[in-house]
Amino acid sequence: MRRYVIPLMCLCFVTWPLFLLLSTHTGSNDATGLVEELTWAVRLDPSHGSGRREELDALAEVLSHAVGLENRGVIGELKDHYLFAHIGHGQSKENTRRKVHAIFTQHDSVRWFSEQKLLKRSKRSLHFNDPKYPQQWHLHNSRSPGMDINVTGVWERNVTGRGVTVVVVDDGVQYTIQDIQPNYSPEGSYDLNSNDPDPMPRPDGYSDNHHGTRCAGEIAAVPNNSFCAVGVAYGSRIAGIRVLDGPLTDSMEAIAFNKHYQINDIYSCSWGPDDDGKTVDGPHQLGKAALQHGVIAGRKGFGSIFVVASGNGGQYDDNCNYDGYANSIYTVTIGAVNEAGEMPFYAEECASMLAVTFSSGDKQMRSIVTSDWDLQKGTGCTEGHTGTSAAAPIAAGMVALMLQVRPCLTWRDVQHIIVFTATKYEDHQAAWKTNGAGFNHSHQHGFGLLNAWRLTNAAKVWESVPYLASYVSPVLKENKNIPLVPHVLELSWNVTTADLLLSGMRTLEHVGVTVSITHPRRGNLQIQLFCPSGMSSLIGATRKLDADPNGFTEWTFSTVRCWGENAEGAYRILVTDVGEETLKRGVFQTWQLTLYGSSWTPEDVAERRRLVEESQGGQFLNDNFSLPCPPGLEISEQDSYTITNNTLRTLMLLGCFAVFWSLYYTVELYLSRISSSSDLDLSCEGSSCILSRRQGSSGPRQLEAGLETESLPLCGSNDVAVDYEEDEDNVGHVALYRHQPSTTQFRLMVENRPKPQNNAIFDLQDNEDTVRHDTRDGDTNLNEYG
Ligand SMILES: [Ca+2]
Ligand SMILES: [Ca+2]
Ligand SMILES: [Ca+2]
Ligand SMILES: [Ca+2]
Hints:
seven-stranded parallel β-sheet, alpha+beta, five-stranded antiparallel β-sheet, transmembrane, 15 helices, binds calcium ion, Alpha-Beta Plaits
């Protein structure tokens, strides 16, 4: 079947320009419907006569009569400037224009003139009748100006998330409440706890299955319905995936991450492993695979956007580098700050934090006002949504605004734009450090506060980053003792120009370090990573409560702090033990460095930063400006067009051509198979190898994730044919045929061999489906934040 990809691609290439043509013809929305009065602004020569006002007034009067227009007098305070209007109905507009133009051009006293055009301006003040809107300080903060997401100007330009669907992966969404129902997307929703399409939350003994509904309201609560609140992206559609109300397995998580992923654009996840300060956990094999698959295949290939909360374990010394969802390069990791911009007691810090946005603080601070369920004790509206749970959906809403203005942003574009636009601000807890590319990052606040205005303006002018390039070092075997502080174990690995040549990587995005360490008390370990620029990341923070005696087994820490820096050079890690002498020394066994980035040079990064800053005046944030999008994205409902008979005929013809071509190709393939089966003996003589590559439908975006099919160095001296393909889980399978000298047959020697590690990000060797539980069920390793 894969063989038919070529004719179908031909069809796509042939039809795409046609679609483009049709869509541009229907894109006009210039019908204002207003009756236009013809008016001209005229500047008279101030040196006329004595130049006094009365003389100019008289001159204007004479001129207006000569040209047959009404003199409306001086324009505001601009002396010498007069407004003339056409009041007659006899002549056509064109004739009037011609006559006026001729007279004004020749008249000695006219210095300059211009016909007045209708200007398109939108009102700057928004009025919402929602009773709780005045309390939604995170949207517009009048008490502490500036401490909000700066979104109202974006809404005023009709950017509200229109055409974008956000899904809340949580304990259900009560889509029947007034503020959710009009924006609810049943197509994007599902219930994995009860295995049905309806994600309605279940009233339980504690009345706490309101969590998903609260998150949904933050994103898409309906404005101007005289009820409760307003969502960040109130023009978007909102779906719910119910998965947290019962036992959760790796496979359920994997299904949730890819559920309806051509409908759902953004997955908002306000939950994660236990925030008890002693857990090290993240997505397991299937969950990881689903996250990766989502960014490759979701959203028509532009990649699902996964927004995750950084966690609520601050009071337990927890750190989001011990949370695999936060560490994942596929997730947008979002932390919380309170109304004063400070890190609240519950917030966690880590090197993989991308940015922060607002949420609750201690008792004196206001919490987030949003929708609520109205089951049990709920009223449909709450002033008490809290934690990083409340921050992640606000970020998801802002991403929806970005995707409205530029639907073809890839998952990496979204992360880049956050890095480029998040704002640093003064806070006594935030230790800011400027990296080699000029970006400021703090482990507490990521790259800074998310700002809806900056995000959408940058999104509007953003052209996609080059495809994802990666580099993976060998597994470096160290087996060295870890000394007690102040001594450190220092390890380093040099990445050379030649190492990066293959992938073309020049600048960094994420940097990952996978370690295996034995230690009698894991929380005593501290690990720092230094990029070639000297930028440091505390990837392994000490944790007082983590007494785990098993150390780390291939745990991957990640940092975003070297974003935009040159990838080449020496990477160092410094490991130390802050514990007591009495404990046995830990052993640093192995580590492996993984770099992600692109072919952008440091100059490209600097140039893009300049472009982003230039876009911030709002001059591009209107309907008249749009960059072209590459093929792949389906045309949204708003921009749909009517198919005419001619279009249908053309498509029919192209379809027939494709069918004919497919048949021809099949016959040719069949004939070549027959002939090649007799040729095979000849071509496999000696020790030469035939390497067959079936790349299937791998396009540029499959390349992006580093999944390009590689030539496999598997041929032994007697091996004669190798066949390689990937199954739907992206696991490579190799069939190796060996020549049997006694016969003329080939024997199948190896099968189901996983793809080699040097380019794969992970593989699925262990299909164990681990059962995990929600916090409230006692035996916890996964919980909601908030
Ligand atoms: Ca249900
Ligand atoms: Ca409302
Ligand atoms: Ca945590
Ligand atoms: Ca992440």
